[in-house]
Write a structure and sequence with these properties.
Pnp Oxidase, Chain A, 5 helices, 24% helix
Protein backbone atom coordinates (compact mmCIF):
# COMPACT_ATOMS: atom_id res chain seq x y z
CA UNK A 1 0.00 0.00 0.00
CA UNK A 2 1.36 3.39 -0.98
CA UNK A 3 2.27 5.94 1.65
CA UNK A 4 -0.53 8.55 1.79
CA UNK A 5 2.02 11.36 1.44
CA UNK A 6 3.27 9.85 -1.82
CA UNK A 7 -0.16 9.73 -3.48
CA UNK A 8 -0.47 12.29 -6.23
CA UNK A 9 -3.24 14.87 -5.72
CA UNK A 10 -6.36 14.43 -7.81
CA UNK A 11 -6.43 17.11 -10.54
CA UNK A 12 -10.20 16.68 -10.93
CA UNK A 13 -10.71 18.07 -7.43
CA UNK A 14 -8.60 21.19 -8.05
CA UNK A 15 -10.64 24.28 -8.81
CA UNK A 16 -10.65 27.99 -8.16
CA UNK A 17 -13.64 30.32 -8.14
CA UNK A 18 -12.80 33.41 -10.19
CA UNK A 19 -14.25 36.55 -8.64
CA UNK A 20 -12.69 39.17 -10.91
CA UNK A 21 -14.68 41.98 -12.46
CA UNK A 22 -16.02 41.25 -15.90
CA UNK A 23 -14.89 42.44 -19.32
CA UNK A 24 -17.48 44.29 -21.41
CA UNK A 25 -17.31 45.33 -25.03
CA UNK A 26 -17.42 48.95 -23.91
CA UNK A 27 -14.21 48.39 -21.92
CA UNK A 28 -12.14 47.50 -24.98
CA UNK A 29 -9.67 49.68 -26.84
CA UNK A 30 -10.06 50.32 -30.57
CA UNK A 31 -7.34 47.83 -31.51
CA UNK A 32 -6.17 44.56 -29.94
CA UNK A 33 -2.60 45.83 -29.59
CA UNK A 34 -3.81 48.84 -27.61
CA UNK A 35 -5.94 46.55 -25.43
CA UNK A 36 -2.98 44.20 -24.98
CA UNK A 37 -0.84 47.16 -23.89
CA UNK A 38 -3.39 48.00 -21.18
CA UNK A 39 -3.47 44.47 -19.81
CA UNK A 40 0.28 44.00 -20.19
CA UNK A 41 0.97 47.12 -18.15
CA UNK A 42 -1.27 45.81 -15.38
CA UNK A 43 0.36 42.38 -15.53
CA UNK A 44 3.82 43.93 -15.31
CA UNK A 45 3.08 46.37 -12.49
CA UNK A 46 0.87 44.34 -10.14
CA UNK A 47 3.86 42.23 -9.12
CA UNK A 48 2.14 38.85 -8.96
CA UNK A 49 3.52 37.50 -12.24
CA UNK A 50 7.07 36.17 -12.43
CA UNK A 51 7.52 36.88 -16.16
CA UNK A 52 4.50 38.68 -17.63
CA UNK A 53 6.13 38.59 -21.07
CA UNK A 54 6.27 34.77 -21.01
CA UNK A 55 4.02 33.23 -23.64
CA UNK A 56 3.32 29.74 -24.94
CA UNK A 57 4.17 29.56 -28.64
CA UNK A 58 2.35 26.78 -30.52
CA UNK A 59 3.38 25.72 -34.00
CA UNK A 60 2.64 22.89 -36.41
CA UNK A 61 4.94 21.44 -39.05
CA UNK A 62 4.04 20.68 -42.66
CA UNK A 63 2.38 17.42 -41.61
CA UNK A 64 0.28 19.04 -38.90
CA UNK A 65 2.28 17.77 -35.91
CA UNK A 66 1.84 20.36 -33.14
CA UNK A 67 4.39 21.48 -30.56
CA UNK A 68 4.39 24.14 -27.85
CA UNK A 69 6.99 25.84 -25.72
CA UNK A 70 7.36 28.95 -23.54
CA UNK A 71 9.14 31.91 -25.13
CA UNK A 72 9.63 35.51 -24.00
CA UNK A 73 7.92 38.33 -25.87
CA UNK A 74 10.47 41.03 -26.68
CA UNK A 75 8.47 43.68 -28.52
CA UNK A 76 4.94 44.43 -29.67
CA UNK A 77 3.32 47.14 -31.75
CA UNK A 78 0.60 47.47 -34.38
CA UNK A 79 2.70 45.31 -36.72
CA UNK A 80 2.69 42.35 -34.38
CA UNK A 81 4.36 40.45 -31.53
CA UNK A 82 8.11 39.72 -31.70
CA UNK A 83 10.22 36.93 -30.21
CA UNK A 84 13.73 35.64 -30.95
CA UNK A 85 15.08 32.14 -31.40
CA UNK A 86 17.57 29.89 -33.14
CA UNK A 87 16.46 29.48 -36.76
CA UNK A 88 17.49 25.82 -36.61
CA UNK A 89 15.17 25.13 -33.65
CA UNK A 90 12.03 23.07 -33.95
CA UNK A 91 9.76 26.11 -33.72
CA UNK A 92 11.65 27.88 -36.51
CA UNK A 93 11.61 24.77 -38.71
CA UNK A 94 7.87 24.45 -38.12
CA UNK A 95 7.32 28.09 -39.06
CA UNK A 96 9.34 27.66 -42.25
CA UNK A 97 6.91 24.91 -43.29
CA UNK A 98 3.76 26.43 -41.80
CA UNK A 99 3.82 30.10 -40.68
CA UNK A 100 0.50 29.81 -38.80
CA UNK A 101 1.18 30.28 -35.09
CA UNK A 102 -0.65 30.81 -31.79
CA UNK A 103 0.59 32.72 -28.75
CA UNK A 104 -0.90 32.29 -25.28
CA UNK A 105 -0.22 34.62 -22.36
CA UNK A 106 -1.35 32.70 -19.21
CA UNK A 107 -1.76 35.40 -16.59
CA UNK A 108 -3.28 33.06 -13.99
CA UNK A 109 -2.92 35.27 -10.86
CA UNK A 110 -5.10 37.86 -12.63
CA UNK A 111 -7.55 35.25 -13.96
CA UNK A 112 -6.70 36.42 -17.47
CA UNK A 113 -5.44 34.98 -20.73
CA UNK A 114 -4.62 36.56 -24.07
CA UNK A 115 -4.62 34.31 -27.13
CA UNK A 116 -3.12 35.55 -30.40
CA UNK A 117 -3.45 33.67 -33.68
CA UNK A 118 -1.63 34.89 -36.76
CA UNK A 119 1.18 34.50 -39.25
CA UNK A 120 4.88 34.60 -38.38
CA UNK A 121 7.55 36.16 -40.55
CA UNK A 122 11.25 36.65 -39.85
CA UNK A 123 12.40 40.07 -38.72
CA UNK A 124 15.06 41.89 -40.73
CA UNK A 125 18.72 41.40 -39.85
CA UNK A 126 19.13 45.01 -38.74
CA UNK A 127 16.28 44.60 -36.26
CA UNK A 128 17.71 41.30 -35.07
CA UNK A 129 21.19 42.78 -34.61
CA UNK A 130 19.83 45.78 -32.71
CA UNK A 131 18.06 43.48 -30.24
CA UNK A 132 21.01 41.06 -29.98
CA UNK A 133 23.23 43.94 -28.81
CA UNK A 134 20.89 44.53 -25.85
CA UNK A 135 21.19 40.96 -24.56
CA UNK A 136 23.43 40.16 -21.60
CA UNK A 137 26.90 38.98 -22.63
CA UNK A 138 26.23 35.45 -21.40
CA UNK A 139 23.02 35.20 -23.42
CA UNK A 140 24.88 36.32 -26.54
CA UNK A 141 27.40 33.53 -26.02
CA UNK A 142 24.60 31.07 -25.33
CA UNK A 143 23.05 31.80 -28.74
CA UNK A 144 26.27 30.48 -30.29
CA UNK A 145 26.87 27.61 -27.88
CA UNK A 146 23.45 25.95 -28.19
CA UNK A 147 22.37 24.05 -31.30
CA UNK A 148 18.79 24.46 -30.13
CA UNK A 149 16.46 21.44 -30.32
CA UNK A 150 19.26 19.09 -31.47
CA UNK A 151 20.06 15.90 -29.55
CA UNK A 152 23.29 16.16 -27.54
CA UNK A 153 25.32 13.54 -25.69
CA UNK A 154 25.28 15.36 -22.37
CA UNK A 155 25.63 18.62 -20.49
CA UNK A 156 29.44 18.56 -20.59
CA UNK A 157 29.62 19.26 -24.30
CA UNK A 158 27.32 22.28 -23.97
CA UNK A 159 29.32 23.67 -21.05
CA UNK A 160 32.56 23.11 -22.96
CA UNK A 161 31.26 24.97 -26.02
CA UNK A 162 30.20 27.88 -23.83
CA UNK A 163 33.58 27.99 -22.07
CA UNK A 164 35.42 28.12 -25.40
CA UNK A 165 33.23 31.01 -26.54
CA UNK A 166 33.71 32.84 -23.24
CA UNK A 167 37.47 32.60 -23.73
CA UNK A 168 37.22 33.83 -27.31
CA UNK A 169 34.85 36.69 -26.49
CA UNK A 170 35.55 37.88 -22.92
CA UNK A 171 33.25 40.32 -21.17
CA UNK A 172 33.42 43.70 -22.88
CA UNK A 173 34.28 42.31 -26.31
CA UNK A 174 31.57 42.42 -28.97
CA UNK A 175 29.99 39.07 -29.84
CA UNK A 176 28.95 38.75 -33.51
CA UNK A 177 25.30 38.10 -34.25
CA UNK A 178 24.85 34.42 -35.18
CA UNK A 179 23.58 33.99 -38.75
CA UNK A 180 21.31 31.18 -37.56
CA UNK A 181 19.62 33.31 -34.89
CA UNK A 182 16.95 35.98 -35.20
CA UNK A 183 13.42 37.17 -34.67
CA UNK A 184 9.89 36.35 -35.73
CA UNK A 185 7.08 38.87 -35.89
CA UNK A 186 3.57 37.44 -35.49
CA UNK A 187 1.01 39.54 -37.36
CA UNK A 188 -2.27 38.87 -35.55
CA UNK A 189 -5.45 37.79 -37.31
CA UNK A 190 -7.40 37.21 -34.11
CA UNK A 191 -6.69 38.26 -30.52
CA UNK A 192 -8.87 36.94 -27.71
CA UNK A 193 -9.04 38.52 -24.26
CA UNK A 194 -10.24 36.04 -21.65
CA UNK A 195 -11.35 37.19 -18.22
CA UNK A 196 -12.21 34.57 -15.60
CA UNK A 197 -15.65 34.92 -13.98
CA UNK A 198 -17.66 33.07 -11.36
CA UNK A 199 -19.25 29.69 -12.15
CA UNK A 200 -17.04 29.26 -15.22
CA UNK A 201 -19.11 31.89 -17.08
CA UNK A 202 -16.01 33.66 -18.29
CA UNK A 203 -15.87 36.70 -20.56
CA UNK A 204 -14.23 36.01 -23.92
CA UNK A 205 -13.97 38.92 -26.35
CA UNK A 206 -12.16 38.37 -29.61
CA UNK A 207 -10.85 40.88 -32.14
CA UNK A 208 -10.98 39.63 -35.74
CA UNK A 209 -9.14 41.44 -38.52
CA UNK A 210 -11.28 42.67 -41.44
CA UNK A 211 -10.34 42.83 -45.12
CA UNK A 212 -9.67 46.57 -44.85
CA UNK A 213 -7.32 46.08 -41.91
CA UNK A 214 -9.86 47.18 -39.31
CA UNK A 215 -11.10 45.07 -36.43
CA UNK A 216 -14.46 43.72 -35.37
CA UNK A 217 -15.15 42.37 -31.89
CA UNK A 218 -17.15 39.24 -31.19
CA UNK A 219 -18.14 37.63 -27.90
CA UNK A 220 -17.53 33.92 -27.48
CA UNK A 221 -19.50 31.67 -25.19
CA UNK A 222 -17.35 30.33 -22.37
Amino acid sequence: MKDADAVSPDPASMRQQYRAEGLAESDLAASPVEQFARWFQQAATEGRLFEPNAMVVSTADGEGRVSSRTVLLKHFDEQGFVFYTNYDSRKARDLAENPQVALLFPWHPMARQVIVAGVARRTGRDETAAYFRTRPHGSQLGAWASEQSSVIAGRAGLDSAYAELAARYPEGEQVPVPPHWGGFRVAPRTVEFWQGRENRLHDRLRYVVEADGGWRVERLSP
